[in-house]
Amino acid sequence: MTTRLELFIGGQRRSPRTDRYLDVWDPATGGVLAQVPLCGTEDAHEAVAAAAAAFEPWAETPVPERARVMFRLQALIQRDLDHLATLIVQENGKALDEARGEVRRGLEVVEFAAGMPSLMMGNGLEQVARGVDTDMYRYPVGVVAGITPFNFPVMIPLWMAPIAIAAGNTFVLKPSQRTPLSAMRLAELFSEAGLPDGVFNVVHGAEDAANALIDHPAVKAVSFVGSEAGARAVYARAAEGIFSSAFANAGQRCLAGSVLMPVGEIADALVERLVDLARTAPMGSGLDPQCVMTPVTTEVHKQRVLGWIERGLQEGARLVAESHHVAVVLRPAAGRQVAPGRPA
């Protein structure tokens, strides 16, 4: 009988709630290695809940203790290198030497993560102004989701999880449904290395599981490598997060993200999505639960914001989403090619 894979949640293997399964094929022989569950929202949310419950105690674990887990994981991966490489060959089809090289490249990141005591160090500077000192601290963010492809089923999860975990975050991995066996073996090695229950979790599936992770409010960061469709799903959520950062509380907060620096070809698509959000965001009273854009506090403030827009245009910026206003409620404005060092 073909083995049906389980999930790895809260330090335990657990049966999925779905009855939908997909065959995992050996590309060389055509044989069925196992069946992987195509999980949905319920299973994904249970994995996130386990990671969220484990976050606070793990974040409070001293950094050298977290690093020692990475040292132990490093030794275990070296011990099981051939076994991991064989799993890769069986479910992915690549040559054994290539699979060994993949494991070694992932192992390099585990070695890097073991240096977290120095990587997590902040810094400080006295007297940046008269009577003013500055200090910078680095903190973990919370639950991190990793969504990984089939072509490097060991290396890419090891790009993501060791750094996130050593930094004090907890992790939910959604591996490709085509190559789930090596992900389950990684979960066993993390556990054997002494990682507390719930810090590293694995949930299987395809689009439904990935979307459930991306959309969950407890997931504070997403690391993704995969298809264009998956990237667009992450990007769509990123645009909404950027918009909220810039315009929540009518932009009247010190953490408002007023300047965006997209890199590469994504820029045009991202700006297009932000423009759409700016043009369609419901405006009005903060007592309206559907309202997104609430008033600025005073007429004077409204005129100041309009003045900043006008100044940007005079200095060469290009307006891609025009602001209009009702009373002291301003429709969001967005500009491109804002000069460096200018108000935004």
CA-based shape = globular
Instruction: Count up the helices.
Output: 11
Strand order across the largest sheet:
9-8-7-10
Q: What is the percentage of strand-forming residues?
A: 15-25%
**Helix and strand pattern:** EEEEHHHHHEEEHEHEHEHHHEEEE
Domains (count): 2
SS-based class: alpha/beta
Question: What distance separates the N and C termini?
Answer: 63 Å
CATH fold description of the largest domain: Aldehyde Dehydrogenase, Chain A, domain 1
Please explain how this structure is put together.
By secondary structure, the chain is of the alpha/beta class. The protein has helices spanning 41-59, 63-79, 81-92, 96-113, 116-119, 155-166, 181-192, 207-215, 228-247, 266-280, 299-314, and strands spanning 7-9, 12-14, 21-25, 32-37, 123-129, 132-136, 143-147, 170-174, 200-202, 219-224, 318-321, 325-326, 329-330, 334-336. The strands form six sheets. A four-stranded parallel beta sheet has the order 9-8-7-10, sandwiched between helices. It has a two-stranded antiparallel ribbon with strand order 1-2. α1 (41-59) crosses α8, α3 (81-92) packs across α4 and α8 packs parallel to α9 (228-247). The longest helix is centred in the last third of the chain and has 20 residues, at 228-247. It is globular, with a radius of gyration of 24 Å.
